[in-house]
């Protein structure tokens, strides 16, 4: 089984934390409709773009409290984008059925 880099593990934990806050909605990696996930991905990408544009394209300075809050918004939106990408990845994985090569990398033999 592959071990993720520390940065990937932290990001994956943040993704999972956001997914857990939405568990009550009933949309999971196993039941998501591809069209819904793709539409939501585009929505979340626009939100990430809006959140990141002003914050990340400025010269580095000592961050104010408002800038820290903006960075946290960027992180949240990045997780939202990644979660919908993960959903679409699993839709494609299920569509491949037993012919999957990638899934074997992520499961114990």
Number of domains: 1
* Overall residue-averaged pLDDT value: 83
The class by helix and strand makeup works out as mainly alpha
Distance between the termini: 8 Å
What is the radius of gyration? 16 Å
- The helical percent reads 55-70%
In percent, how much strand structure appears in the residues? under 5%
What does this structure look like?
With 109 residues, this protein is an all-alpha fold. The radius of gyration is 16 Å and the shape is globular. The longest helix has 32 residues, at 65-96. Helix 1 (6-21) packs across helix 3 (65-96) and helix 2 runs antiparallel to helix 3. The model has no long low-confidence stretch (mean pLDDT 83). It has one domain. The chain contains four helices and no strands. The chain has helices at 6-21, 34-56, 65-96, 102-105.
Pick out its properties.
109 residues, 4 helices, globular, 69% helix, mainly alpha, single chain
Write the layout of secondary structure elements.
Blueprint: H1 6-21, H2 34-56, H3 65-96, H4 102-105
Helix pairs in contact: 1-3, 2-3
Short description:
It is built from 4 helices and no strands. The chain has helices spanning 6-21, 34-56, 65-96, 102-105.
